[in-house]
Amino acid sequence: MPQPHNPHNTEPSWFSLIGGGAPSPQPPHALDHAWRPDELGPPYFQSTLDLGEDDEGKVYATVVKYEPAGFVRAARAVLYVHGWSDYFFQTETAEFWHAQGSAFYALDLRKYGRSLRDWQTPGYVDDLATYAFDISAALTLIRAELGAHTSIMLMGHSTGGLVCSLWAHYNPGEVSGLVLNSPWLELQGSSIVRTMSQPALAQLARINPKAPLPSIDAGFYARTINAKFGGEWEYNESWRPNPSFPVRPGWLSAITTGHARVARGLHITAPILVLASTKTTILARWSDEMLRSDSVLEVDQIARRAVQLGENVTVRRIPEGVHDLALSPKPVRDVYYESIRQWSTAYGWSGTVN
Questions:
Q1: Does the pLDDT value for residue 354 go beyond 80?
Q2: In the chain, where are the structural domains located?
Q3: Cα dist. 119→51, 111, 335 in Å?
Q4: Which CATH fold topology does 32-186+265-348 show?
Q5: Crossing angle, helix 91-99 and helix 330-343, to 10 degrees?
């Protein structure tokens, strides 16, 4: 599989830019095209992608598809990419896209969710460009099922939104559009905080890249969504733990490098929809305001960075939305999905695909 490249950019590849000259990961050895029942139960099925090996051993990604009875092969598909310390379980999102006439697939990235193995450091990569193989392999699988000319839209949440944005920048013409649900486009605080912290973080990443950093997750976000605490959602807490997986210097350095690239401006050619709450509530102690605002990221930062992603960007603010807008209370979710429907009808599939 060729490395991602942008013919309109003098940078030779995503790997050389983000990875600073580090060896690129191995391409996928083979795709397991066998679909088997998923833990979500029918009509969800999963297939494993063999991504070769890294320094911890064998590496896999997992594609989940939604295929209800009577499913007819669609000309359009959506590939969903989850956020940090997360995996795909948002079944309403799959059902929404199916109702729009699109096939739905979700990708559990390497070392997350269904793809996590006992010998792996959960969620860890030291270079966001590594995920180019996960995404490209998933797209190969989708097009093998639906046809080489299938129009595919990427949908990314939080860290997945950052990864999808970078991938789309370095792979123009590969997808028809992007839907970004509270994408993590800048470090909390400001670009000044990121710039000042990067040298020290890079030093830590060189010395002990996998050492766990002190946790700052007080569990407030989980309290807003988990059914055990009064929320609406049940999920696999081994794959989405509370507190979240430990943050490690190598991973955080990769994230801030990605943020720096976004800050310089991307040139995504496909139309983009960025959705975020209208309010952030990040506090050291619990507040009921966290039930109706983003308690993870600074939403005004998201809106400011969004316009630097490409030339066709729509920003939609969702009142009383939580961090994952798809997990907000039902009336808020209705606004969220209707906003996506309106945008996708007008713009979402208009990107030119190679």
A1: no
A2: 32-186+265-348
A3: 15, 10, 41
A4: Rossmann fold (3.40.50)
A5: 40
